[in-house]
Amino acid sequence: MITKPDTQHIRQYLRLYLVMGSVNCNQPPEEVLKSAIAGGITLFQFREKGVGALTGQAYYKLAERLQQICHTHQIPFIVNDDVELAIALNADGIHVGQEDAPADQIRARLGDDKIIGVSAHSVAEARQAIEDGADYLGIGPIYPTISKADAQAVQGTSTITALKNHHIEIPLVGIGGIHAGNAEPIFTAGADGIAVISAIAGQTDIEQATQQLNTLTRRLIAN
Description:
It is an enzyme of class 2 (transferase). By secondary structure, the chain is of the alpha/beta class. It is built from 10 helices and 8 strands. The protein is 43% helix and 16% strand.
């Protein structure tokens, strides 16, 4: 288990954030995660959704195996949406959407030492999430994506820009259709990092693809 980081360290964790479940992988997910860690991801979210997603004990066991890999390498392990799984595994945190329970209710169940991320699509949603105690916001979809069937309308970097114009300084990560060729505007708009699925999990050479993104995001953050 990772000790809950302060805001500055959360910004650093968001830089290269892998979101993945078994349905996103062309290889065993455990091997994908190991290669992605070797390539330089900074945070991992377990998201097991979509056609063919595991359920029941198989779902739990995969999460457990991926969590162990993360902890071996000191990478925070975040669960998507599933509060019960996060509690059962004592995960490092959770990421929830607007349709889920608010962050303050989740905090009451998980405890003060967990990272809570919330998806936000407007300044109003961002302010509510901050009021509820979110540690960071996921903003998107930035670009068209095939990884999330129920994704909101594509918004580009407009919401990130709006949040910055309204002096909202909570850590931000962009998500949705992001790859090495289109990541730069997200950082220019003011995000602290990018969350990717297929740009890593869907690649043939996982480690090489991750290294490319790692090098790029380090350069963009430095600028």
